[in-house]
Amino acid sequence: MTSPITLHRHGDVLVIVSDNPPVNALGAAVRQGLESAIKEGVADASIAAMVIRCEGRTFFAGADITEFGKPMAEPALPALVDMIEAADKPVIAAIHGTALGGGCEVALSCHYRIAVPSAKLGFPEVKLGLLPGAGGTQRAPRLAGVPLALEMTAKGDPIPAKRALDAGLIDRLAGEDSLEADALRFAKEMIGKPLPRASQKTATPDPEAVAAFTKANARRFRSFDAPAANIACVVKATEVPFEEGIQFERQEFMKLMMGVQSAAQRHIFFAERKAAKIDGIADDIALRSIKRVGVIGAGTMGGGISMNFLSAGIPVTIVEMQQEALDRGTATIRKNYEATAAKGRMTADQVAAAMGALTPTLKLDDLADCDLIIEAVYEEMGVKKDIFGKLDGIAKPGAILASNTSYLDINEIAAVTKRPGDVLGMHFFSPANVMKLLEVVRGDKTADDVLTTVMALAKKIRKVAVVAGVCHGFIGNRMLMPRQVEAMKLLMEGATPEQIDKVHVDFGMPMGPFQMSDLAGVDIGWHRDPTRIESIRDALAAEKRWGQKTKAGFYDYDDKRNPSPSPRVAEIIEDFRKKTGAKQHEVTTEEIVERTLYPMVNEGALILAEGKAQRASDIDVVWIYGYGWPVYRGGPMFWADTQGLKKIVAGLEKHGFDVAPLLREKADRGERFTS
Ligand code: 3H9
C-alpha cells in the first residue's frame, strides 16, 4: 500500500505532504508516514528545516475517529507530536482548511505555524464527548492563554486564522494561494534560530477567567461530562509542569473515551453523515438545479423556511392570499434578520442582500419560474390538494413540488398532480430558520433525482436531512404520539404534569410532554366545541387554557412565560379521575421512563421494520436535531442499546404494551439497533 505521506526536497527544506482524503484524518498510515518523515528529516544532515502541509481540502482534521475504541497502532498521536516538537530543526506547519483536534495538536507541536487567511483552527473533541488527548489542552494555554484555550477546548468552536494570529496560536498569515512558497520562505528564515517549543512555555493562571467562563456556560454544559474535563485540563496546565499536565490530560481523555457519553456523541457524528446517504441511489446521480425557491404561506413556518434559502443566497418568491398577511410575514423576516444583525452575527449589507432576494407576491402564478416550490399552509388535506392541483398548472416542467406537512399523506397530495415524481415532503421544524432537522418525505413515486436534489440542497442551507417514508407523522411525530398518549394516561393514574415533565427534563430533554403541549398550543387539533368535553385536553381547551399563548395551559404562566403548577389543572385532572374511576397508584420515575420512553423505542422499531426510516441511526438524528433528545444519550435507538433491549422488552411487557416484533427479535438474539 502506498503511504499517504510523500516527501519533497526544496534545497535544504524537506516538505512533508499528507494526502489522505477526504479530510486528512490522522489514521495509522498517516502517523507512521509522519514519524518516518520526521526521523528522516532529523537524520539527514543536508536538511535544515521541515514543513508539514496537506493536499486536498484541508490540513489534518483530527485523529481518525473510526479507529476509536479499537487497539491503537503505533505510533500513537501523543508520541508523534512529542517527537515533532523534539526535532532539532525547525518544523513549520502550513495550514489551510481546518486544523482540527489532533490536527491542531500536530500544528501546536511544530515550532512555527503559518496559515492561509481562510483557515480555521479548533478543538472540536468536546463535541465528540472528548478532549484534545495529544497535548492540546497543555500547549494551547501556553501559547494563547487560558481564556482562549478554554473557549476552544470546552466549547469546541473553531477560530479563524486571523484570531489565532492575534492570540499567538499561529505565527504568520500566508497568501491565500501561496501557502507552500510562503511556508518555505518562513522555514528558511528560521534555520539556525533557537527553537520555540510550546511545552517549554508557562501558562499563566487565570482563576477569574475560569470562574467567569464556567458560570457563563453552565446551561450549555449541563449534564455533559466533557466540558468540565476540558476545563480541568486547561487549569492543570497552569498548575503543574508540562509532563505532569500531559499525564493528567491522558487520564481524563481515557475516562471520557471509555464512557457512554462519548460513544453516543461519536455515534451521532457518523449518524448525521450517514443520514445524507440514500440506499439504492448512486452518489453521482445528476441533480436538478435550484436557482429560485417559491414558498406558499408567509406565516411563522413559511417565513422561517424562506429565511433558510435567503441566508444561503438563494432568491425566494413568497406567496400569501392577503396583502396584510404578506406584509406581516415580510416584516417578521426583516425583524428576525435585524435581530441577528444587532447581535453582531450579520452585517447590515447581509441583511440588505437577504431582503433584496425576497419577492413577496399575492399571485400563485408568480411561482412559474421557481425550481422548487414549498407549500407551508394550513395543515388540512383539502387545502393542500387544492394548492398542488393549481401548482401543477403553474410550475415549470422539472420544478420540484414540496409540502411542509407534518403528518399528511404525501402520496395523496402527489396524486392530484400529473407529475407525482416531482413531489415530496419537506418537513421543517419550528422555528424553521433555527432548527437543524429536515425530514425529507419520499413518496411512492418521488423520483430519485428529486430526492437527492433536496438532500443536497438541505446541506447547502445547513440542515441535517433525514429521509422518511410516508406514514402518519413520519419518523419524529409518529414516535411522539405514544409518548403523549401515555403521559396523559399517567395523569389519570395519579401523576402530575410537573412530575412527568421533570423526569423528561432530568433525562436531558429541553422540556417534558406537557411543557411541549403548552408551547405548541393545547388547542392544536381541538374540535373547537367547548361543550364537548371528553378528555383533560378538551377541558383545558374549553377554558381557553391553550398554553403559553394564553398564559395558561397545563401550567399557569406569568408575564415572562415562567411556568408554575396550576391548581385549576389539578382540579380538572382530579375531576376526570373521579369521572372515569381510573385506578390510582403512586407513579415512580422508573414507571414514567418505562411508559413514556420505552414506547418511543417500540414505535421506532415498527418504523424501521416498515422501512419508513432507512436505518436506526436516522431515527436518532431526527430526535437529536428535531426534538432536543440529549446528544450525550445518542438518540432513542442508541439509548435503548445502552439500556439493553431485553430490559426494554421486559419494561414494555410489564405495562402491557404490544412489543414490536423487530425489537423482540433483536432482544432475543442479543443484538443492537445501532452499530
Ligand atoms: C481527535 O482528534 C482526538 C485527539 O485530540 C486525540 C487523539 C489521541 N475521522 O463532515 P464531512 C469523514 S478527535 C474519520 O461530510 P465537511 C466523515 O465521516 C477528532 N473520518 O465533510 C465523512 O465520511 P463519509 C477531532 C472523518 O467538508 C467525510 O470524512 N476532529 C473525520 O462537511 C467527510 O466529512 C473532529 O472532530 C475524522 N476525524 O466537513 C473533526 N472527519 O464521506 C471532525 C471527517 O464517508 N470532522 N470524517 O460520510 C469535521 O468536523 C468535518 O468532517 C470537517 C469537514 C469540518 C473536517
From TrEMBL:
Residues 473-557 form the 3-hydroxyacyl-CoA dehydrogenase C-terminal domain. It catalyses: a (3S)-3-hydroxyacyl-CoA + NAD(+) = a 3-oxoacyl-CoA + NADH + H(+). It holds the Pfam family 3HCDH. It comes from the Bacteria. The keyword Lipid metabolism applies. It is found in: Peroxisome. Pathway: Lipid metabolism; fatty acid beta-oxidation. InterPro entries: 3-OHacyl-CoA_DH_NAD-bd, 3HC_DH_C, 6-PGluconate_DH-like_C_sf, ClpP/crotonase-like_dom_sf, Enoyl-CoA_hyd/isom_CS, Enoyl-CoA_hydra/iso, NAD(P)-bd_dom_sf. Keywords: Fatty acid metabolism, Isomerase, Lipid degradation, Lipid metabolism, Lyase, Multifunctional enzyme, NAD, Oxidoreductase, Peroxisome. GO terms for biological process: fatty acid beta-oxidation. Monomer. Belongs to the enoyl-CoA hydratase/isomerase family. This is Short chain enoyl-CoA hydratase /3-hydroxyacyl-CoA dehydrogenase. The lineage of its organism: Bacteria, Pseudomonadati, Pseudomonadota, Alphaproteobacteria, Sphingomonadales.
